[in-house]
Specification:
The protein is an alpha+beta fold and 112 residues long. Helices cover 34% and strands 30% of the residues.
Length: 112
């Protein structure tokens, strides 16, 4: 009977520890200082076209906007914008589901 109590106790402690870790991680992400519209404007400055989707994400503990833009060249671009200062962190061409799958898998991310 003591082993059963020990096992149940160990499981309970593990669940509490994991749940607490998730709660702490959720609290560490700050609210973005840049709004969605400003992030989209910055992204359109880097890649002219039409915004298709904008998502607030967390990368390396920092909040960023990932803005998908259908460029004037017809290619789908993903532009990453820092949610704390509105600076464009990089961009890459997305695979838009054409028959030429994998043809644009050359790591076209711009590290500027």
């Amino acid at each position: 009977m003591d082993r059963k109590k020990l096992a149940v106790g160990a499981v309970a402690v593990t669940i509490l520890a994991l749940g607490g870790g998730v709660a702490i991680a959720a609290q560490q992400q700050e609210d973005p200082k840049v709004d969605r519209a400003s992030a989209e404007e910055a992204a359109l400055g880097a890649v002219p076209g039409q915004v298709k989707e904008t998502e607030l994400e967390s990368e390396g503990g920092s909040a960023v906007y990932e803005v998908e833009i259908l460029g004037k060249d017809g290619k789908l671009q993903e532009v990453t914008v820092d949610a704390s200062n509105g600076k464009v962190l990089g961009q890459e061409t997305e695979d838009n589901g054409s028959d030429d799958q994998g043809a644009d898998d050359q790591g076209s991310e711009d590290a500027d």
